[in-house]
Each structure stands twice: as C-alpha cells, then as structure tokens.
Amino acid sequence: MSERIPAIVLGGTGYVAGELLRLLAAHPRVELRAVASDSQPGESVGAAFGHLAATVGDLAFCSQDEAADLAASLPRSAVLAAAPHGVSAALIDGLLRRAEAAGARPAVVDISADYRFADTDTYARVYKHPHGAPARQAQFTCAVPEHLDRITTPHAAHPGCFSTATLLATVPLLALGLVEPRLFVSAVTGSTGSGRKPTTGTHHPQRHSDMYAYSGLAHRHAPEIAALARAASGVEADIAFIPHSGPFARGIHATVQATLVRPLKTEDVIAGLRQFYAGRPFVRVLDTPPRLKDVVTSNYAHLGAVADGRTVAVMAVVDNLVKGAAGGGVQWMNRLLGFDETTGLLAPAPGWT
Q1: Taking a C-beta distance cutoff of 8 angstroms, is the pair 225, 232 a contact?
Q2: Residues 13, 329: contact at Cβ < 8 Å?
Q3: Starting from the edge strand earliest in sequence, which strands make up the sheet with 238-245, in order?
Q4: Residues 116, 120, 124, CA angle at the centre, nearest 5°?
Q5: Residue 285 and residue 332 in contact, taking contact as beta carbons nearer than 8 Å
Q6: Which amino acids are annotated catalytic?
Q7: What's the rounded Cα separation, in Å, for the pair 188 and 180?
Q8: Mean of the pLDDT values across residues 58-67?
Q9: Beta-carbon neighbour count of residue 75 at 10 Å?
C-alpha cells in the first residue's frame, strides 16, 4: 500500500466534524494530521469528542492559520471542511491561496452549503449574504456521488443531508422519465441535523416524543434540491418540500411523491430504481419500506417504492451525519484522491442503536 495521504479537517468541533474524525481514524489510506478550530485552539480533540479519545491520542485543535500552513507544506493532502455555511468558503479560499503559492495541491471537499449552487448569485439570494469566495465557484462540483460518474474539477462539495436523501429518491424518477416534473417531499430529520449548539428545536424536553413541520414550502434546501436534481437528471422540476423535526438523534426519512406519466406498478418502479443504481455500492433498493435503524451510523442509503398506476412514492433513509454529510464527504475525498470510493466506508449499521 502506498504512503498514506495527510488529512486536515476545518471547522472541527461540531457533530459532522466528529463523524469525519471517526471515519478518518479508521481509513487505511489517509492519516489525520490536523483538526482546525479557532474557538478551541490548543484544546484536546479527545476531550471534545470523548468517544474518539482512544483513537486521536494527544491531538489538539490547531488554528485555521496553522491548518493552512500545514496544507501549504504538503505536496498533496485532503482537506475536509465542516465549517458553517457563510464561513467555509472564505476558510477554504485562504487555505488554497497559501497552498497554491507554495506549489501544494490539496484536494478539498466542502460539506457546508457554500459550494452547492453553480452560481454565487443564487447562493446569495437563498442564503441572504454574499458568497465568501466567488472566484472559487468553478473549482467545485456539487452532487450526490452516485449521480456523477466523473468529476472534472479539483474540488468537490457534498449536498446536505435533506438534499442527499431527497435526491436519491428523486433523480431516478426524473432521469428515467417516469413522472411529471412536480414532486412533493416530506422528510423527517433527527436532532443532530441542527448542530451541536443546543437550541429550542434540539433541546431534549422540547423534542422528545414530538414531531413537527417547519419552514414548510420555504426551506432553503428546496432550491438546492431542485438545482441538483436538474444537474443530475437534465429535467427542470418543481420541488414542494416540507421538512419535519423528529424525536430521534440520527437519521433522515424522506418520502417523495409524484404523478406517473404512464401507468406503472410497484414492481416496475422498483426495477427501474435497481437498474438506475446498479453498481452503486452504497444504495440498496428494497422490496419493503426502508427503516432508519438499518442505515444509522453507516454510509448506506436504502430506498423503497410503491405505485398505484397513477401516483408513485419513493422512500429513502440515510444517516444525516454520515451519508448526508461526513460519509458522503469521505466518499468524494476517495474519488478525488483516486481511491476506490468505498474505502473506509463499508462498515454496516449496528442495527440496534
């Protein structure tokens, strides 16, 4: 096996960063070299993520500047950015400037929202602030890995967790010409999707034994889903998106409904989904409705479908922190570095979380 590639994590204190560290610690082809956090420089990574203490040893958080200096000193590295949207683009730009000046070639995967749109004007309109590094936009490709065979840009961006689950269910319906281009999405996410900092929406007494919708037909992920669905399928579609907060910590269950353009039975749709995802090791199409516990903590996505001749519904389940964020990011990292995309990601879900 060739020498391991150094890996750097930016924005290293949140839930997604913790999952990146867990996945990278077990990755056979990369070596975790730095975890950047301007809020906790010098503090122990193991203290921030107690469950990772045995694997990260005495590693301490470094500053973003130190991470950029490290990237500039390495001829090749992997950089995974888990900073918040509106912050990530500028951090990545600063790191790449130093690296480029030194002749270094880091491969960057952004897991924030900063590089999900193909143009910065759309980003500014949806996120209500200017893009942090518009000149870098053309250097990033954003897609669910299963929807793009070949990446031609030096860097990649991974769609968000709601988008990942919804796109896995939506893109085959559009690309195969099975439905009218008007889709209705109802998706439920766990509390980790709101981040590590406690809020009213994630506080356990508020969320326990409850479920509620929010930002109905107005959530910022809807235009992201529509744009990425168009890029992957070639079809312009309207996406009516209703997100929900669920009473569990991890996972997303998304149901996508649409009107069929011709009568189809359930078995016809399932056959189409299986053909579409043939050779995609992380997507499994089931004959029964998918269950969250079968994928939580893994990089796998399970799909199921029903059809009555007029309407079709495709259900998708993913772990929001893994397939919807850190795992998808590592999958992109593998591809950018020329590794098999499954490297370090084949562990199954535990099943009884």
Answers
A1: no
A2: no
A3: 212-213, 238-245, 179-189, 252-260, 311-318, 301-307, 283-285
A4: 95
A5: no
A6: 161
A7: 24
A8: 96
A9: 11
pLDDT, average across residues 242-265: 97
Which two tokens mark 248?
């569990």
Q: Which residue is listed with tokens 């910065």? A: 120
Residues 99, 75: Cα–Cα separation, whole Å: 9
- Can you spell out the DSSP letters for 127-178? HSS--S-GGGGGGEEE--GGG-S---SSEEE---HHHHHHHHHHHHHHHTT-
| DSSP H stretches of helix in 176-265 | 204-207, 221-233
* Side-chain-facing half-sphere of 97: CA atoms under 13 Å: 10
Q: What average pLDDT does this structure show over 248-276?
A: 97
Q: What is the pLDDT of residues 119-167, one digit of tens each?
A: 999 999 999 999 999 999 999 999 999 999 999 999 999 999 999 999 9
End-to-end CA distance of the chain: 34
1 C-beta neighbours (distance < 10 Å), count: 5
Confidence of residue 2 (pLDDT cuts 50, 70, 90): low
Measured distance CA(149)–CA(84) in Å, rounded: 28
3-state secondary structure of 8: strand
Q: What integer pLDDT is reported at residue 1 of this predicted model?
A: 47
Give residue 198's pLDDT: 79
Residues of the chain with pLDDT > 90: what percent? Answer: 92
Q: pTM for the full model?
A: 0.96
Please check whether residue 178 is in contact with residue 261, taking contact to mean a CB–CB distance below 8 angstroms. yes
Return the axis-axis angle of helices 64-73 and 88-101, rounded to nearest 10°.
Answer: 30
- Specify the pairing of strand 212-213 against strand 238-245: antiparallel
Pairing of strands 252-260, 105-110: unpaired
Instruction: Check residue 269 and give its pLDDT.
Output: 98
Domains and CATH numbers, the chain: 5-142 (3.40.50.720), 162-320 (3.30.360.10)
pLDDT at 25 over 70: yes
SS3 189: strand
b/e string for 56-72 if b means 16 or more Cβ within 10 A? beebbbbebeebbbbbb
Q: Does the structure show a pLDDT above 80 at 322?
A: yes
